[in-house]
Design brief:
This protein is an alpha/beta fold.
Length: about 120
């Protein structure tokens, strides 16, 4: 998995040809976004952090390192939930779509890092 093959993008940004396959990686649909306006190849709710972890994190950058540790532990047990992403990455570029305002400290960024770290 090359670093360039996994991108992250806010759901509020328009889709682009270079996005490749696009997957929403949130448990909740992003506020104010119409489903008709977001081109998605899948909505992978089970790849998102658990509701308990999401609430604990609260997008607090001070909790980022611990959030990543806990989320990675959840992903280690996710099994088949990540299969569609892993398969798509083998075929070409993939964009992880998310709704958070913070572009650096969000679950999609952590998920991208996890996928790159675990390579296959």
């Amino acid at each position: 998995m090359a670093a360039r093959s996994i991108m992250v993008k806010r759901a509020y940004e328009p889709p682009a040809a270079e996005d490749g396959q696009r997957f929403l990686v949130e448990r909740l649909w992003p506020r104010g976004v119409r489903k008709a306006d977001v081109r998605l190849d899948g909505w992978l709710k089970d790849s998102a952090p658990s509701p308990k972890l999401r609430r604990w994190f609260g997008h607090d950058p001070a909790r980022w390192a611990e959030f990543r540790r806990r989320y990675f532990a959840e992903l280690d047990g996710a099994g088949p939930a990540l299969a569609p992403l892993r398969d798509a990455i083998l075929r070409g570029p993939v964009t992880l779509v998310y709704g958070a305002r913070d572009t650096e400290h969000n679950a999609a960024v952590a998920l991208r890092d996890y996928l790159l770290r675990s390579r296959g």
